[in-house]
Amino acid sequence: MNKYIIKVNGTPYEVEVEEVGGGRPVAVSSNPRASKPGHTASARLAQPQAGKPGDVAAPMPGTVLKLKVNLGDEVKKGQVLLILEAMKMENEIVAPADGKVTVLTVEAGKSVTAGELMASIA
């Protein structure tokens, strides 16, 4: 098990990472080092692939708080598509590529599971 310090919006978090089958690291615990009462961090997360390059899957289970785009909108790589609340943190889910939103399977208030397809950019 390896320990790392990761900064999210300037707040350092100490995390322990254990390597499991396939060599893919999985976070097993995290503790904020310098947390402030009532503070929530917003982080950009790497998007897992749901089948094709423009697919955007939920990186973890959570609840969609807010959609920032609509079906048919043109987006740029890195543009925020939606806000996903997971583990009491608001996470910005971003477009993996430039293109048009061709699939949008979520709405505000919907719960998603890890790996569930939320949108597709073509």
TrEMBL record:
Hydrolase found in the keyword field: no
Domain Lipoyl-binding: 47-122
Record SUPFAM superfamilies: Single hybrid motif
Gene3D superfamilies, per the entry: 2.40.50.100
Disordered as annotated region, ranges: 23-58
Keyword annotations: Biotin
Top-level taxonomic group: Bacteria
Protein name per UniProt: Biotin/lipoyl attachment domain-containing protein
Organism: Ruminiclostridium papyrosolvens DSM 2782
Source lineage: Bacteria, Bacillati, Bacillota, Clostridia, Eubacteriales
